[in-house]
Records
---
Amino acid sequence: MATERAGTWLPEAGKLELGSCCGPRMLSPERLALTDYEYLAQRHVLTYMEDAVCQLLENKEDISQYGIARFFTEYFNSVCQGTHVLFREFSFIQATPHNRASFLRAFWRCFRTVGKNGDLLTMKEYHCLLQLLCPDFPLELTQKAARIVLMDDAMDCLMSFSDFLFAFQIQFYYSEFLESVAAIYQDLLSGKNPNTVIVPTSSSGQHRQRPALGEASMLEGVEASLFYQCLENLCDRHKYSCPPPALVKEVLSNVQRLTFYGFLVALSKHHGINQALGALPDKGDLMHDPAMDEELERLLAQVPGLVNSVTASSEASCLPSRTPPRVGSPWRPLHHARKVDAESDGSTEETDESET
């Protein structure tokens, strides 16, 4: 995963904020050390070019009204701002590290009022919120994130927004890496040689079933130093995103033994890992987003009579429907970044109405 931004509009995981602009940048030493093809592959440029061309062909009649050049300009502005993942299919939002970071940030910005109001939601209710942004978001991934928070508690227990969000960040962004970690953990429990661990290579690793972790293994765990040696080798050869090895070492150096879910909890609560990923603010700033508040106020002011109704409804709970809403086929936004903010705000109002 790239750790520095290089180039002009080229996206990078975790370092671009929604609403930010991508201007010309000095080329980094990392960029100069790569060939052109290596750099394009590292930044997943081909993925975005293919997606842009597909959207161009699917919407060529509408795009012809304002020109191809403007379409590409606004498409890549949307990529830089992180709004390109809204209402897209799951295969696209997980396609690149930048897409994953953008989706995490969009989910936080759209539904942070849940945390501000102090609402506690179940796993299924959080999944409904995820489906408002990605209609085919898999339930299994939401369940795995909830398990990090709930541990041995029942899956229908309530969770705070911040607890779920930081657990979801780890599970969603590092899903393939965690699949490999689960396999290593299970091998260590069974006494197998860690050097013979087979790393999953499927691009759909988050859909694989994790090895069953028995009650005894949950209590006993594995030796932290040996676990770190295996993870260090895994990070060196893993083709997907993984936490910085130095921070993983810091997590494991504080204990002698730990369980698999104990490791995931430590990752989700680690301040340095959250900063390295760069998608979410610190926990203390999670409920503050002045830029979004200012934009929403500006949009509401343009609609006569809407401010009073929104103010009155803000006292009501933001809980989603207890049954998953029926979500239509995803709309693939081309360039309407501002329109997305208004629609995402309205989506929670729709779930409120379904509950009454």
---
Amino acid sequence: MFANLPGKVALITGSTSGIGLSVAKKLASQGVHIGLNGFAKPEEVTAIRREIEDQYKVKTFYHGADLKEGPQVKSMMQETSKALGSVDILVNNAGIQYIEQAVNFPEQKFNDIIAINLTAAFLTTKYALPQMLDKNWGRIINIASVHGLVASVNKCAYVAAKHGIVGLTKATALEVAKTGITINAVCPGWVMTKLIEIQIQQRADQYKISFEDAQIKLLEEKQPSVTPVSTDQLGDLITFLCSNSASQIKGSTYTMDGGWTSQ
């Protein structure tokens, strides 16, 4: 356990499933109180909160803000801080995707992706920083993507947003470089989530091959290791970035992509 983390408060957007939920549990295992956000049924939220509270003996809070809506983002930040005492750690994880050629890309879809994947991260950072500056301590980790560093076809909005996240990370990190606040980005490649599992199974069914062979077929197009990143691995990296050992890591971009961006 990292000595500086017990009693801190983390808000993780998009944390009712996948990467965000794994990060929430990793931080809770360090004694960090957890602010959750994301779309889920009330009974699912209750079950997630109960599991985290019972297993890790920390407090939790949930806010269902629609991150496309600026006033809801502000309310989430204020209410989480009021319920848990502060927001010491902010993990901007929420994101959406839409795949289409730019010439046919719906304007509203483009705007929604920019709003959720980029603007919301700016707003949460804006609202978190005053309290962090008062304490002279804070951690902001922005979940970008390999698509914050390289591009793929038919993903113009997502690539634009994730490149923006990397830029936002660098600029804001420089603004607080002389303080006890760090701001960094993590750029995963293929991550084993339910969404990816479905894609792999679809390929397995389509080609009548095993799940393992279908995984290789999907990943070998981009990820040389042909092994997906696990949500636990991402959680471990983010937890480290919250520690005192990472206090001089500022404005950095960490890839965890099985070699994708080394090509």
---
Amino acid sequence: MAAHNFLWSLTKNCFTFGLIGLTVSDRYASIVPVRGSSMSPTFNPTTDSFMGSLSDDHVLMEKFCLQKYKFSHGDVIVFCSPSNHKEKHVKRIIGLPGDWIGTPMTNDVVKVPNGHCWVEGDNPSSSLDSRSFGPIPLGLVKGRVTHILWPPQRVRHVERKNHQKRHSPS
């Protein structure tokens, strides 16, 4: 009988902690792996194919910014790919609604529409970002990156960097 009570108590505790963990991950914050070199040197400054995902940076993504879509230029965000909702991308916000963004490849200036943002990777030579697929809807944003949590030697706060790509309309 004691073993039955122990197992029942253990099961209830695991279920309770599982629900609490799921709620925290769903509503407040979660840990996200950053793959590839599109955000280098901010994330994954060295690529080691031998170590694979063990050397990838893992970051803390907070979700409080989603309540009123409070983002700033230079914030690093996680968002769903506009072409494949199962893919998550990590990029830096360059432009917010109403901003004019210069596109160096076509020498055009694009206005970011309401409800959208312009994102780019810190490593433009290997980044699939708004230069490829245009402004992304804010509804695709999953959260803002605040800290690097893994690997241990890289634990730190993620700084907001302001890229000067915005233009005033002429």
